[in-house]
């Protein structure tokens, strides 16, 4: 594949992949040499979960905001 035939979108994607490869290679070298491998705080924390009651409260609050918005707009 010739680089001159790629679209800008494809070039950006290739650049992002190259950056990821470099980061992973660096982490691998640190692991193999015994250095501590740093992970991002997001990876450590995991995905946060929201309770059903909290979701319902957020939904109700948003519904009230929209109700107020449309009331002002139609007035």
Task: Give an overview in words.
The protein contains three helices and no strands. By secondary structure, it is mainly α. The protein has one domain. It starts with 7 loop residues before the first helix and ends with a helix. 72% of the residues lie in helices and 0% in strands. The protein has helices at residues 8-33, 41-45, 52-74.
Question: Which descriptors apply to this entry?
Answer:
mainly alpha, 3 helices
Largest sheet: none
Please report which band the strand proportion falls in: under 5%, 5-15%, 15-25%, 25-35%, 35-45% or over 45%: under 5%
Order of helices and strands: HHH
Oligomer: single chain
Structural class by sheet pairing and helices: mainly alpha
| Overall form | flat
Helicity range: over 70%
- What is the rounded Rg? 24 Å
Distance between the termini: 61 Å
Task: Annotate the secondary structure layout.
Blueprint: H1 8-33, H2 41-45, H3 52-74
Please summarize what this structure is.
The chain is an all-alpha fold and 75 residues long. It has 3 helices and no strands.
């Amino acid at each position: 594949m010739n680089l001159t035939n790629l679209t800008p979108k494809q070039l950006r994607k290739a650049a992002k992949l190259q950056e990821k490869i470099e980061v992973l290679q660096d982490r691998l070298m640190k692991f193999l040499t015994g250095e501590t491998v740093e992970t991002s705080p997001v990876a450590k924390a995991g995905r946060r979960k929201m309770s059903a009651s909290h979701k319902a409260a957020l939904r109700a609050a948003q519904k009230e905001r929209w109700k107020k918005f449309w009331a002002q707009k139609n007035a």
